[in-house]
Design goal:
Strand content: 35-45%
Number of strands: 8
Structural class: alpha+beta
Oligomer: single chain
CATH class: Alpha Beta
Distance between the termini: 15 Å
Shape: elongated
Radius of gyration: 16 Å
CATH superfamily: Phage tail protein-like
Length: 137
């Protein structure tokens, strides 16, 4: 029987790589606790559920393909871009998922830096996307 790949170990691996680079990382959004104050810079990981892709005509769906958005946030445009650079450096080294052979994350880029005036004080953010793929080890 084949093992169907799961998104969570892949998201955990991306988060671990970013935290290993010294970044504060949140999964799926920032905390909503009363009194929470955002740090000067951080990243928010938004993984999609991914797809179990067939490895051959035998239709065994053991390969994995996903897009993960990492929103890079800073107190200035320069700080948000600095986070994006740190993310790029961290993921360039690759990720490790137990029992899987992972491709090096593919940098898909993102839109220009934007300012979010809906929070006080305003922050700057830039979402960047990475394609995450793996096969059974």
């Amino acid at each position: 029987m084949t093992t169907v790949p799961d998104v969570l170990p892949h998201a955990d691996a991306v988060q671990a790589a970013l935290e290993g680079a010294g970044l504060t990382v949140y999964l799926g959004g920032t905390p909503t606790d009363d009194g929470w104050t955002p740090p000067d810079l951080f990243a928010v990981l938004y993984p999609d559920p991914g797809m179990a892709v067939r490895e051959s005509l035998a239709d065994e769906r053991t390969d994995f393909d996903s897009t993960m958005q990492i929103t890079c946030v800073g107190s200035s445009a320069e700080r948000a871009l600095w986070v994006a650079g740190e993310v790029r450096q961290a993921l360039a080294a690759g990720i490790t998922v137990e029992g899987r052979s992972c491709w090096r994350p593919e940098d898909l880029g993102g839109p220009p830096v934007a300012r979010d005036d809906d929070v006080t004080p305003p922050v700057f953010f830039v979402p960047v996307q990475y394609r995450i793929c793996s096969t059974p080890a």
